[in-house]
């Protein structure tokens, strides 16, 4: 098993397969998009599969496919199928915005994917367009319905933003009344792809108090080990509610995660600068044993939390890079 110097077991890999996205969400990137990574700088399917295989041999048993938007990558469904066959992998999941996902849902179910995180920041079509700068709200809702029909667990991810979607918090909570979905409200983070600082008016405490004003009988649930969210349930509701302190970073103590960016950069923390590039190591002819040694060394130096990681050298340009280039 992989362990860092704090004794934490690292068994969860987040693999970003592409930086490109078919939305332009205000909290992630500028309206005109980003300077996309050149094709030759992205990892190939074979490189991604090899890296995932090395991680599973080291004890990683959970992999989440992220982006950008994963299904913007050509033939990403074939890559997902190959990853699903890796020995030692017990939990393969996916984060998507839902625009291109629906046709692949039967295959995802066949591959053993039991959980999908669906990005949805509003239940209002007009606000959806203002936030994402693209049309497609009804496609996302159809994806949500199809995931439920195929008995795939859905976690709706909602970034809470002042003057943009506060009025959506309670309607989204109400989804958990009659649907078997979890809705997770996320503090806005600075990874917005431009030099705009955020003023975090809606932190996890304020989000909770707002929900509690409408549902005073809301109950705190026990948070699973390494959970990123504070979890709650309203009596009689089918689903659950979570709040993720992504900016205030109060969940780092039990962190079990590691990230691979679309270019192959191994990052032990979202707020970490630099890292080692496993794609470059592969293209330099390194063996799997050499890759394992690199991974073990990197994880050993994993920072205690996001604040320590940021203080270790994350500059202003890096903290405003888009989540799409890091891996959502």
From TrEMBL:
Keyword Secreted included in the entry's annotation: no
SMART domains for the chain: Elp3 (SM00729)
Pfam family, one: Radical_SAM
Protein name: GTP 3',8-cyclase
Cofactor list: [4Fe-4S] cluster
Annotated organism of origin: Chryseobacterium rhizosphaerae
Transmembrane found in the keyword field: no
Radical SAM core domain boundaries: 5-225
EC number(s) from the headed UniProt entry: 4.1.99.22
